[in-house]
Give the backbone structure.
Amino acid sequence: MAEPTVDIELDLIGLDSPLPMLKTKDLIDTLLPGQQVLVKTSSIGSEQNIRTLLQNLPATLTYFKKEQGVFYFWIEKQAM
């Protein structure tokens, strides 16, 4: 599967948990429905934290991959 296109890229590599989750939430709150963001983080706890966060927001994880210690989350904002 090809990686989805994104409107915004959020590079959080090097930040410790829970900062990647908090910054992801702050960005999702500003998105319009249909916009997509790529979040990159190296924090091990982020995989579970961001997945849990998305269960409580109007947003969907459209694609995910882990490569060389970096987690990549493609997230699309949904209409409320």
